[in-house]
Amino acid sequence: MSDLAKNRLFAIEKESIGPIPAHERHGSGKQLFAIWMGMNMTPLTVVTGATATTLLDLPFLPAALAILLGHAIGGIGMALHAAQGPVLGIPQMLQARGQFGTKGANLVVVIAILMFVGYFASNLVVSSASVRAIIPQSNPSAIIIACAALSFVIAAFGYNLIRKVTEISAYVVGALAVIAFAALLGTPEFWGNVLVGEFSWSGFCAMVAIGVVWQLAYAPYVSDYSRYMPRDSGARGAFWGTYLGCVVSSVLLMLLGAGVGVAYANLETMSAMSAIAGPFFGYLILFGFALAAAAGNSVNVYCSTLCLLTLVETFRTGWRPAAKHRIAGSALLHVIGAVLALAAATSFASSYFSFLSILLYLLIPWSAINLVDYYLVRAGSYAVNDFYLPSGGRYGSWNRWALAVFVLGVVVQIPFMSTAFYAGPAAEVLGGIDIAWLVGLLFSGIAYLAICRKVPSAVHAIAETATSTTPDWEK
To answer: How many domains does the chain have?
Structure first.
């Protein structure tokens, strides 16, 4: 490692939510591939995959097909968001001001914060379960707190250390996952139960939807990492590096989870992992997964901190968040996430499944609006400086058209929802098949494009006080 790389690795990141200057741009598609491979190398990915053959009761082969299909579809949208980072050089949720206005974007920013903190807490719960599978007498609360502390140290340094840690996780946990797969394929329990289960279109479509939302759940922060890549040459590498890294790793570990669910349906997923691999490799796998989840959790809090700073900056005219503000925000969110993890340690699987379902319905309209606006309406051309103007510049404070499409994009999904706590009339007619995500995606994208072509103010929501003055950020 060069001296420059070492200095970057262990230096506190000074950039926060401002545009990344040209002299700070670095990275490649290969590095992004490693980052997103590492991001999914967590027990949470395995546990989510296990829902296909446990909660949804699918046989292994249909479960595997649903996992592959869902991630392949969702990964396209997620990677298209990642390709925006090198061009604009700003966090993904700040770029939402281009569609919703400076203050209107706060709606999706708050949703993103809730999502990131939810995933952070979920990872803490599953990390704790991994350690307790090794040391049953260990204190789960102490493990959760220790994992949160490790995440905070990494997140405090910022982008470069987070990137390196997730790269290491990709190789270490990837090797452990291969060992786990080999052990799984060598167990008679797997082959004896590989056809067990009952295929249903509702279960199959639910697992496809989980794959889609798993990928789109990353969409609100993929640009937070690709924004450091070179502007002129980074978009293509950002797309493929993010797509392949995220899809390959998530499919690999969810297939592992589905297989574990087949072999030991009566055991908690991480305990079953230990039973499959044997005492030595089982403990090694669980320990590696727990460390990777704790370290990789820094990604969730890093990005939620950027969202938090974006939210606060909206109401503090001329405020430029510094490193100390990022670290303070990170500390606050770590505490909140740890408290949620401590409270949600019981009945985790069912509550997490419901969390994923709700998350999907909220993310779909935002993703559709953002992608249509970026690729079809503005062709990637934004006045980034206007994002930091109190008035919102040419984008205004509120874009009522985009917000209306977003709300309607959620509403039109309601009849098609099929969850543990609610099933819409259309879903019941379809036999429990959940296509709400597809309805929301198509409606939101088509409606927003049609409005932008018919109503000029939907594209340029110019505030009366907007001027061409340079924001304090750029001075």
So the answer is: 1
- The position carrying tokens 């000074």 is 14
Q: Say if 418 falls within a structural domain.
A: no
Answer yes or no: is 66 within a domain: yes
Prediction pTM value: 0.85
pLDDT in tens, 311-335: 998 888 778 888 899 999 999 999 9
What is the domain range of residue 78? Answer: 3-364
In a domain, 322, yes or no: yes
Handedness of CA 327, 332, 336, 342 (dihedral sign): positive
For the stretch 242-276, pLDDT in tens is 999 999 999 999 999 999 989 887 777 777 777 78
**CATH at residue 44:** 1.10.4160.10
